[in-house]
């Protein structure tokens, strides 16, 4: 694996569905021919290793994954479009750049591309993060990262010991993940599932298909009644909501517990609806995950 | 690198920076896959790689090395025949991508489920990565269902439109597909400032100046210059390296009275118009142009009655303010031109245009050539919707660069350019007051509309209210507020959708105040007998009769049904001719018109089949070229009503003369009985007598938790007389509903309030409807009432879309009791509205 011994010069490219839509050119270093990091491997303890180059489509249609980690496969099956899912990888999904229309428009400079401001703060704020923890207000784009949070998944990065998927992200306004240039994500590890656990995913959009979420959420409910909830589209990072989880554990009705999702929100004049939509989406996934089957 | 393409091992010259769509199109000349959005969202570039559909615009060339690639050109699948039979296409630009994906889906479905039709949701999910701007989704559903049932596995297919086979095989050639030997690529350098004096333009290479005489740019995205190079990548590099000197001027990016002036007294006379024909007269007050009040009837009486009603708080005075967002045409084939000067000095243009004849005329005038030395070709046109008329900037750039570079030059707008500066329907703010008297008759109407078409004027919205609901007094005032934003252009029914958004909701509100059925009220107020026939039909629909009582529902999901009526002009090109020439045993029809997806080729072929009793393979329709007999522009819903009678006349002349090879006849469009409203044709167009009508009844389901509106069913009643080609006509009416749904629910151009830069510069952020947003649609044609018209039928392209958004709003009101005032009806607005 010379690629690890001699750190490559160039932009690392997996499926390329994000990279090729961004400004800038090569050289690119194609990861697709790397041995190993594709496909799902099941460990004796029932846990799963998903190679970083496994495509979203493979994850969405994998029956054993679907039985074990339904929030992951439901999310995978709902993001982007069939053609993108066929090519995009889980590694690329976790490490993709955000979709802010200022960041992606060459007319603007911002924290994310070498600038020192966030034009979205004074501009179109309709899609901005409503949980404001960073100078940048672009919501994090990775739906899969959000789903992995409820499974307490870990990621394996070459040269490091495995660490929680949430630690890939932070409020640094200059980047969408915290890996250093040239660092390679190899795999995602999911702990063994709990027998009888259930999950739900919901993506709030205006059209019926193929749209980046205004808000998204997953809920995972285990037979002991414990719930894990995470959300996307509302903050710089994919976010677990312990305030909702604890409220449920304390026996609060679902509607009340879901309402606690609003507690960290600091809406602007134009994104107040995201607070409403956030609590609605959390309630939606809680109801779905606990509905009689 | 080695790739097997459509079964043939191929050596492709590709670098690691290249994406597959460019390797196919530019490197290998396979133009079936179209580069439309370049962000993986529209699917027009979809190919199969080792059997799996993928978007080739984001696919690195290295990803297909050693693999088997199949493009539409190499596809031979029953679903292609199904698309032809069920008319799953209009302009055809998205079709190669659709059929590649559909083929894979149909095979997988039948393998797993056998020969049964899938549920619509399964088809929608499978085709979620494809967009069709014409809105041919109903035909696409039907085609995929039929292919899944195994109905097109063998045998011949009668296509619903004559050029369908070219479109489903990727063989149809559009302007973007043209590649001459030695051709260069042109790129336009655009302003990054919303308002500035350009002091210097410093470019390394051949440059064409595109600035206005005063050297002032008035919006971000305005063309400054064009450059060309042997490849697009090189041309982009030259453009990127250009140094433009700006002396900034204060920019007007909102419509507040204190905004800096966009024009001075001299330059404002040159403000472009977003309307068709002439700019409405009116004075200027700062950035406000107007009002134009010429469409009013007894304005003083109307105002007096409304003021009195306001003072006495008359419950039958309905007032409101309604706004609409800027809607962008965004045809999937962008504006494109390939220009070539030949050795004789003739100018040859391949042009994506709705007006081959007008483009040739204007090119001759602009470049001072004899009319017969300009040759415009638009064999296939990937949609237009009003944005592709005459000579636009890509043509100017291509022609002048071709002359300067002594090489053919192609200029194709990027999607960002197309979404920024290639046309839009201006946004509007309309204040409306509608008063009924004690008998419930319309007593007075006042409509004030401020259009916001950037640097353009002529939004012309209120004036359409002159022509509806009788002759009660009405004051109709049209204003434009100019800003430093890109200009509007005519867009399918210019002015009407914003008027109907306000008016048809106000009428609905009046029906509630009068406790009268909204259809019955319209029937009473509306004198148009053709539309009355539609009301009668609509009132009997189970869809309408079973609608819920407004505000009666309390659950999360609420169903509602709404109605809206629409009125539109009947326009015609009186000078239209069709030439027929017998070549051996084939009859060739020619006229200087073009098919932008409307199906005019099929209309002509159908008439010739009928009149001459010929099989399809003995008829050839050659349109999309200037230089033949006069034909209409595809603007103003006038193509079919102009061309069809001339084709019939020509066929009858040919029948009289006998069909010996070499015979040539010319048919004319005879004048209508009673003549036309306009005494002479302006730009080839006359306004005929009578108005076309439409009534849309729309059912939605509102999810009050998530703030979404799902259109479930739409009935469209269309009163445009004789229908010449049933399936393409229905397809266009269905597409009109889809575009109306886009206008109602999703489409909205966003501009950065500080810099004036268009933010919705890609097809992710500018949201057009997808197949999953398609309701079940029923189109009813009322074919009576046009006996005075030669051919008894008039156009339907515009009347079929302009009222749809208002019917959606009335359905939302019926479902929730909340009335939307602002377009689009986004989830945030709905959530706020129903909680208020």
Write up what this structure looks like.
The complex is a heterodimer of chains A (about 290) and B (about 850). Chain A contains eleven helices and eleven strands. Chain A is of the alpha+beta class. Chain A starts with a helix and ends with a helix. In chain A, the strands form three sheets. In chain A, strands 3-4-7-5-6 form a five-stranded antiparallel sheet, with no helix packed on it. Chain A is globular. The longest helix of chain A is centred in the last third of the chain and has 18 residues, at about 275-290. Chain A folds into two domains: about 40-190, Uridine Diphospho-n-acetylenolpyruvylglucosamine Reductase, domain 3; about 200-290, CO dehydrogenase flavoprotein, C-terminal domain (Enolase-like, domain 1, 2-Layer Sandwich). In chain A, helix 4 (about 70-80) packs antiparallel against helix 8. Chain A has helices at about 1-5, 55-60, 65-70, 70-80, 80-85, 90-95, 120, 145-150, 240-250, 255-260, 275-290; strands at about 10-15, 30, 40, 50, 155, 165, 185-190, 200-205, 215-220, 225-230, 240. Chain B is of the alpha+beta class and about 850 residues long. Chain B folds into five domains: about 1-75, Ubiquitin-like (UB roll); about 75-170, Orthogonal Bundle (DNA polymerase, domain 1), CATH 1.10.150.120; about 265-330 and about 425-510, Aldehyde Oxidoreductase, domain 4, CATH 3.30.365; about 515-570 and about 690-835, Aldehyde Oxidoreductase, domain 4 (2-Layer Sandwich), CATH 3.30.365; about 575-670, Aldehyde oxidase/xanthine dehydrogenase, molybdopterin binding domain (Aldehyde Oxidoreductase, domain 4). In chain B, about 25% of the residues lie in helices and about 25% in strands. Chain B has a seven-stranded mixed sheet, sandwiched between helices. A six-stranded mixed sheet of chain B has the order 12-13-23-22-21-14, with helices on both faces. In chain B, a hairpin with a 2-residue loop joins strand 1 (about 1-5) and strand 2 (about 10). In chain B, helix 2 packs across helix 3, helix 13 (about 520-525) runs antiparallel to helix 14 (about 530-540) and helix 16 (about 600-610) runs parallel beside helix 17 (about 640-655). The longest helix of chain B is centred in the C-terminal third of the chain and has 20 residues, at about 725-745. In chain B, about 65% of the residues are buried. The mean pLDDT of chain B is about 95. The interface between A and B is large, with 50 and 58 residues. Chain B: Pfam families: Fer2, Fer2_2, MoCoBD_1, MoCoBD_2. Chain B: It comes from Nonomuraea harbinensis. Chain B: Keywords: Molybdenum, Oxidoreductase. Chain B: This is Molybdopterin-dependent oxidoreductase. Chain B: Belongs to the xanthine dehydrogenase family. Chain A: InterPro entries: CO_DH_flav_C, Diverse_Substr_Oxidored, FAD-bd_PCMH, Mopterin_DH_FAD-bd.
């Amino acid at each position: 694996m010379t690629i690890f011994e001699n750190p490559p010069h160039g932009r690392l490219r997996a499926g390329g569905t994000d990279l090729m839509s961004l400004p800038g050119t090569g050289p690119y270093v194609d990861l697709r021919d790397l041995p190993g990091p594709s496909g799902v491997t099941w460990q004796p303890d029932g846990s799963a290793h998903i190679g970083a180059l496994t495509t979203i489509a493979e994850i969405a249609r994998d029956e054993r994954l679907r039985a074990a980690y339904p929030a992951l496969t439901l999310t995978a099956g709902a993001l982007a479009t069939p053609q993108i899912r066929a090519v995009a990888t889980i590694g690329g999904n976790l490490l993709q750049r955000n979709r802010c229309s200022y960041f992606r428009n060459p007319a603007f400079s911002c924290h994310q591309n070498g600038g020192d401001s966030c034009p979205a703060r004074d501009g179109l704020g309709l899609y901005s993060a409503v949980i404001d923890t960073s100078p940048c207000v672009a919501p994090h784009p990775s739906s899969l990262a959000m789903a992995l949070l409820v499974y307490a998944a870990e990621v394996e990065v070459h040269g490091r010991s495995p660490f929680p998927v949430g630690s890939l992200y932070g409020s640094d306004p200059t980047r969408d993940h915290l890996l250093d240039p040239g660092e390679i994500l190899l795999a995602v590890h999911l702990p063994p599932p709990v027998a009888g656990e259930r999950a739900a995913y919901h993506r709030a959009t205006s059209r019926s298909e193929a749209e980046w979420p205004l808000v998204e959420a997953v809920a995972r409910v285990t037979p002991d009644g414990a719930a894990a909830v995470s959300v996307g589209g509302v903050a710089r990072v994919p976010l677990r909501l312990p305030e909702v989880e604890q409220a449920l554990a304390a026996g609060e009705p679902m509607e009340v517990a879901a309402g606690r999702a609003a507690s960290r929100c600091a809406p602007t004049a134009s994104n107040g609806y995201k607070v409403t939509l956030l609590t609605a989406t959390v309630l939606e996934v809680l109801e779905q995950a606990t509905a009689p089957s | 690198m080695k790739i097997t393409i459509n079964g043939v091992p191929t050596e492709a010259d590709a670098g690691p920076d290249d994406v597959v769509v460019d390797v196919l199109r530019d490197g290998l000349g396979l133009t079936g896959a179209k580069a439309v959005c370049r962000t993986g969202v529209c699917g027009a570039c979809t190919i199969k790689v080792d059997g799996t559909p993928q978007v080739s615009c984001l696919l690195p060339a290295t990803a297909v090395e050693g693999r088997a690639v199949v493009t539409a050109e190499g596809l031979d699948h029953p679903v292609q025949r199904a698309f032809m039979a069920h008319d799953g296409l209009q302009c055809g630009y998205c079709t190669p991508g659709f059929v590649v994906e559909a083929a894979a889906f149909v095979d997988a479905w039948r393998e797993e489920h056998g020969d049964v039709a899938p549920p619509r949701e399964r088809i929608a999910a499978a085709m979620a990565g494809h967009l069709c701007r014409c809105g041919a989704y109903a035909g696409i559903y039907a085609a995929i269902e039929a292919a899944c049932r195994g109905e097109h596995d063998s045998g011949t297919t009668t296509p619903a439109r004559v050029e369908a086979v070219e479109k489903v095989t990727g063989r149809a050639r559009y302007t973007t597909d043209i590649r001459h030997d030695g051709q260069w690529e042109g790129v336009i350098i655009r302003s990054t400032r919303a308002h500035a004096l350009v002091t210097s333009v410093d470019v390394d290479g051949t440059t064409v100046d595109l600035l206005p005489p005063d050297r002032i740019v008035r919006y971000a995205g305005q063309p400054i210059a064009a450059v060309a190079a042997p490849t697009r990548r090189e041309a982009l590099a030259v453009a990127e390296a250009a140094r433009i000197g700006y002396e900034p001027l204060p920019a007007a990016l909102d419509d507040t009275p204190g905004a800096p002036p966009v024009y001075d007294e001299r330059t404002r006379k040159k403000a472009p118009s977003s309307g068709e024909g002439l700019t409405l007269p009116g004075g200027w007050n700062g950035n406000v142009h107007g009002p134009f009040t010429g469409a009013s009837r007894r304005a003083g009486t109307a105002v007096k009655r409304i003021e009195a009603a306001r003072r006495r708080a008359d419950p039958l005075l309905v007032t409101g303010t309604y706004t609409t967002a800027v809607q962008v045409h965004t045809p999937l084939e962008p504006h494109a031109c390939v220009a070539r000067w030949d050795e004789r000095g003739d100018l040859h243009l391949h042009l994506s245009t709705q007006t081959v004849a007008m483009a040739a005329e204007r090119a001759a005038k602009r470049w001072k050539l004899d009319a017969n030395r300009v040759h415009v070709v638009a064999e296939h046109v990937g949609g237009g919707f009003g944005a592709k008329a005459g000579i636009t900037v890509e043509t100017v750039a291509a022609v002048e660069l071709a002359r300067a570079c002594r090489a053919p030059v192609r200029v194709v707008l990027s999607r960002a350019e197309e979404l920024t500066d290639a046309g839009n329907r201006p946004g509007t703010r309309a204040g409306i007051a509608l008063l009924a008297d004690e008998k419930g008759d319309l007593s007075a109407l006042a409509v004030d509309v401020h259009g916001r078409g950037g640097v353009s004027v002529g939004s012309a919205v209120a004036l359409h209210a002159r022509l509806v609901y009788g002759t009660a007094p009405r004051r109709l005032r049209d204003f434009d507020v100019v800003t430093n934003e890109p200009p509007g252009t005519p867009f399918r029914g210019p002015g009407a959708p914003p008027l109907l958004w306000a008016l048809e909701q106000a009428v609905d509100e009046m029906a509630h105040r009068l406790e009268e059925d909204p259809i019955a009220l319209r029937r009473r107020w509306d004198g148009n007998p053709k539309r009355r026939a539609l009301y009668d039909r609509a009132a009997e629909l189970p869809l309408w009769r079973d609608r819920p009582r407004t505000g009666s529902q309390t659950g999360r999901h609420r169903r509602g049904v709404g109605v809206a009526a629409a009125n539109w002009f009947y326009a015609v090109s009186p000078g239209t001719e069709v030439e027929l020439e017998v070549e051996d045993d084939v009859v060739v029809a020619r006229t200087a018109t073009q098919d932008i997806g409307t199906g005019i080729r099929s209309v002509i072929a159908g008439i010739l089949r009928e009149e001459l009793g010929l099989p399809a393979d003995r008829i050839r329709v050659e349109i999309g070229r200037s230089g033949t007999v006069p034909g209409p522009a595809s603007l103003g819903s006038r193509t079919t009503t102009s061309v069809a009678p001339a084709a019939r006349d020509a066929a009858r002349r040919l029948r009289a003369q006998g069909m010996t090879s070499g015979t040539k006849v010319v048919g004319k469009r005879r004048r209508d009985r009673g003549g036309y409203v306009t005494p002479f044709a302006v730009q080839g167009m006359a306004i005929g007598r009578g108005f076309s009508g439409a009534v849309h009844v729309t059912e939605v389901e509102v999810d009050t938790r998530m703030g979404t509106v799902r259109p479930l069913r739409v009935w469209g009643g269309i009163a445009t007389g004789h229908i010449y080609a049933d399936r393409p006509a229905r397809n266009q009416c269905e597409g009109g509903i889809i575009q109306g749904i886009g206008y109602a629910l999703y489409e909205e151009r966003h501009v950065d309030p500080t810099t004036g830069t268009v933010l919705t510069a890609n097809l992710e952020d500018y949201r057009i409807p997808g197949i999953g947003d398609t309701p079940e649609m029923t189109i009813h044609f009322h074919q009576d009432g046009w006996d005075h018209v030669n051919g008894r039928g008039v156009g339907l392209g515009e009347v079929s879309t302009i009222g749809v958004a208002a019917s959606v709003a009335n359905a939302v009101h019926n479902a929730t009791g909340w009335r939307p005032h602002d377009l689009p009806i986004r989830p945030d607005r709905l959530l706020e509205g129903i909680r208020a």
